[in-house]
Amino acid sequence: MSEDAPSRPEAQPPVDEQREFAARSGLRFPLLSDPDRKLAEALTLPTFTVAGQAFYKRATLIAKRERIVKVFYPVFPPQQNAADVVDWLENNPGHVTDVAAAEQRE
User: Fold this and answer.
1) Fewest CB within a 10 Å sphere: which of 4, 20, 37, 49?
2) β-strands 47-50, 67-72 pairing
3) Shortest CA distance to 75 belongs to which of 67, 83, 63?
4) Cβ-count burial 22-55 (b if 16+ within 10 Å, e if not)
5) pLDDT-based confidence at residue 7 (cuts at 50, 70, 90)
6) For residues 10 and 49, what is the distance between their CA atoms, to the nearest angstrom?
7) What's the pLDDT tens digit per position in 13-70?
8) What is the DSSP string of 34-50?
9) In contact, 44 and 71? CB cutoff 8 Å
10) Backbone phi, then psi, for 76, in 5-degree steps?
């Protein structure tokens, strides 16, 4: 790709595709869709660009009551991140919300 070539628009999976993935995977939490990168800009989240497409770098944000209470970044090694998050949640019970109770309120 030459330097004069126009960059392609930033790719993001459609919201419907994300919902289907969440349902198929049995996720018990919502996935965020940020096609305009407003969240990335507001929180200065780390991103990188490949072939004109912007992507988020791996990061895990834990939020409670509209506030970010913990950030895992950089996420390395990535296969360890889920265990690190679970460990943090178990050791910080005041930040854990009962997902089943939250789903019943919806």
Assistant:
1) 4
2) unpaired
3) 83
4) eeeeeeeeeeeeeeeeeeeeeeebeeeeeeeeee
5) very low
6) 9
7) 567 888 888 889 988 877 777 878 898 899 999 999 999 888 889 999 998 888 899 9
8) -TT-HHHHHHT--EEEE
9) no
10) -155, 135
Within 10 angstroms of residue 89's Cβ, the number of other Cβ atoms is 14
What 8-state DSSP symbol labels residue 14? -
Contacts 24+ apart (CB under 8 A), 3-9: 6/52, 7/52, 8/51, 8/52, 8/53
Q: Could you give the CA distance from residue 41 to residue 51 in angstroms, rounded to a whole number? A: 20
35: left (phi over 0), alpha (psi -120 to 50) or beta: alpha
Q: How far apart are CA 87 and CA 63, in angstroms?
A: 16
Q: Name the token pair of 102.
A: 């939250």
Tracing tokens 């030459």 back to the chain, one arrives at 2
Give the position of tokens 């998050």: 85
Report the candidate in 58, 106, 100 with the shortest Cα–Cα distance to residue 82: 58
